[in-house]
Amino acid sequence: QVQLVESGGGLVQAGGSLRLSCTASGSIFSINAMGWYRQAPGKQRELVAASTSGGNTNYADSVKGRFTISRDNAKNTVYLQMNSLKPEDTAVYYCFADLLTQGGTYLHDYWGQGTQVTVSS
Fold first, then answer.
1. What pLDDT digit, counting tens, does each position of 15-36 carry?
2. Which of 95, 98, 101, 93 minimizes the C-alpha distance to 117?
3. pLDDT tens, 19-78?
4. Cβ atoms of residues 98 and 87 within 8 Å
């Protein structure tokens, strides 16, 4: 059993900041990529940021320069620091991981339950 638990969402005014956290727990052997998707009502899911175990990162063009992804591999935790937030950043943010369980099962794009981020204008 593997769980991804997000925290840190909320309501913030435009220009403000939030920090999301996501911790993976359970029968995990190793984690490759971790990151964040978001989905706004009526819109397609968008990859916001991702980080590999080797330290490579990538970002959606819409968040470059404003969002920063980081990881604490010892804690199986990924963070998303979101600065200069805009109303168009409003969405449910989902943590994801590509991981190998102790039982030898590879889980690709394994999601958490999501956390709401609302940016008011």
1. 999 999 999 999 999 999 999 9
2. 93
3. 999 999 999 999 999 999 999 999 999 999 999 988 899 999 999 999 999 999 999 999
4. no
Determine the 3-state secondary structure of 112 from DSSP: coil
Angle at 15 between CA 13 and CA 20, to 5 degrees: 75
Q: 59: which 2 tokens?
A: 């970002």
DSSP string for residues in 41-103: TTS--EEEEEE-TTS-EEE-TTTTTTEEEEEEGGGTEEEEEE-S--GGG-EEEEEEEEEEETT
Cβ–Cβ contacts within 10 Å for residue 43, how many?
Answer: 10
Q: In sequence order, what are the beta bridge partners of 106?
A: 100
Q: Evaluate the CA torsion angle 53, 58, 63, 65 in order and state its sign.
A: positive
Instruction: Specify the pairing of strand 91-101 against strand 106-111.
Output: antiparallel
